[in-house]
Write a structure and sequence with these properties.
alpha+beta, 32% helix, 8-stranded mixed β-sheet, globular, single chain, Glutamine Phosphoribosylpyrophosphate, subunit 1, domain 1
Length: 309
């Protein structure tokens, strides 16, 4: 039987160890483990990689700790604009949504775009119409209210600053969640979800919902979910870049992931990280920041839940 495995992330960035209380650290690790175990259970029971990554991301979206779903940050107009994507490495089918609000689990809507529409990417009002057509419940704003996120926004509202997510420094907070998996049949999938940037304006969209930039899966190579400074990950087409190095340069998953995160993206001043899996169940989780909330579990017995290097 194929080695099956799953990896998840809850964002990368300036995670200053001194700023993290032991209680907070346990809370983050507990949330990561919950999502990891739920996704892994699907794989153990013979479920597909697509089902496993969706389930893991749904659990992360339901936690206020991460900038996706419930924990989404506030935009300049004090609203929430969420993005998500999912891709099936077996078929290359993909679904993505952007600039949506009131949807508890954007990753599930992205999966419905993949499965129930003839399109890949729906945004804004159109994506919301699609959700309503499928009878998605639209949550009240209060569901997405988190005091910490609101305080983050209050600090910089009415300025031209925006911030990513996990840290004290204004300009270096990343918060995206994602999962990649390889199932018992050797099929792989990737899913990514985010609440974007605090105080973002003009309908800014990052790399998370963009197939090939922040999310990608192809059974020929690998499945990737990224987290980091989205603008740079879009310019570097990071997720596809890893797959491309594997396909055309015959690099291993680790070699290709390391090349992109430690060299290519740094050359254009991009920071962040990614999680990756190939069809043999190998996992890579490189990042060039102080930390990345991440966890992985494999049928070969290896399991880890980590925050720092």
């Amino acid at each position: 039987m194929n080695t099956f495995s799953i990896a998840i992330h809850g964002g990368a960035g300036t995670l200053v160890k001194g700023m993290m209380t032991p209680e907070k650290e346990q809370e983050y690790k507990g949330a990561l483990k919950l999502a990891l175990d739920a996704g892994y259970l699907i794989l153990v029971n013979g479920g597909s990689a697509v089902e496993a990554v969706e389930e893991a991301v749904v659990i992360l979206e339901n936690s206020h700790l991460f900038n996706a779903g419930k924990g989404s940050v506030f935009t300049a107009t004090e609203t929430h604009e969420m993005d998500a994507s999912i891709m099936d490495g077996k078929t290359l089918n993909a679904g993505a949504v952007s600039l949506i609000n009131g949807i508890k689990n954007p990753v599930s809507l992205a999966k419905d775009v993949m499965r129930k529409s003839e399109h890949v990417f729906l945004a804004g009002d159109g994506a919301m119409q699609f959700a309503k057509q499928l009878n998605y419940k639209i949550e009240e704003d209060s569901y997405f209210y988190d005091k910490f996120r609101h305080d983050q926004w209050i600090e910089i509202k009415d300025t031209d600053s925006f911030q990513l997510d996990h840290s004290v420094k204004k300009d270096s907070k990343f918060g995206t969640v994602g999962a990649v998996a390889c199932d018992q049949n050797g099929n792989i999938a990737a899913a990514t979800s985010t609440g974007g940037m605090t105080n973002k304006k003009w309908g800014r969209v990052g790399d998370s919902p963009m197939i090939g930039a922040g999310n990608y899966a192809n059974n020929k190579t690998c499945a990737i979910s990224c987290t980091g400074s989205g603008e740079f990950f879009i310019r570097g087409v990071v997720a596809y870049d890893v797959a491309c190095l594997m396909e055309h340069k015959n690099m291993s998953l680790k070699e290709a992931s390391d090349e992109v995160i430690y060299k290519r993206i740094l050359k254009i001043k991009g920071d962040g990280g990614l999680i990756a899996v190939d069809t043999k169940g190998n996992i890579a989780m490189p990042f060039n920041t102080e930390g990345m909330y991440r966890a992985s579990k494999s049928s070969n017995g290896k399991e880890e839940v980590l925050i720092y290097k």
